[in-house]
Amino acid sequence: MGRAVTVATCALNQWALDFEGNLERIIRSIDIAKSKGARYRLGPELEICGYGCSDHYYESDTLLHSFQVLEKLLESPVTQDIICDVGMPVLHRNVRYNCRVIFLNKKILLIRPKISLANAGNYRELRWFTPWSKARHVEEYFLPRIIQEVTGQETVPFGDAVLATKDTCLGAEICEELWAPNSPHIEMGLDGVEIFTNSSGSHHVLRKAHARVDLVNSATAKNGGIYILANQKGCDGDRLYYDGCAMISMNGETVAQGSQFSLDDVEVLVATLDLEDVRSYRAEISSRNLAASKVNPYPRVKVNFALSCPDDVAVPTCMPIQWRHHSPEEEISLGPACWLWDYLRRSKQAGFLLPLSGGIDSSATACIVYSMCHQVCLAVKNGNADVLADAQRIVNDETYIPEDPREFCKRVFTTCYMASENSSQDTCNRAKLLAEQIGSYHINLNIDAAVKAVVGIFSVVTGRTPRFSVHGGSSRESLALQNVQARIRMVLAYLFAQLTLWARGMPGGLLVLGSANVDESLRGYLTKYDCSSADINPIGGISKTDLKNFIQYCIENFQLTALRSIMSAPPTAELEPLVDGQVAQTDEADMGMTYAELSIYGKLRKIAKAGPYSMFCKLINMWKEICTPREVASKVKHFFRMYSVNRHKMTTLTPSYHAENYSPDDNRFDLRPFLYNTSWSWQFRCIDKQVNAL
Question: What architecture is domain 4-302?
Answer without folding.
Answer: 4-Layer Sandwich (3.60)
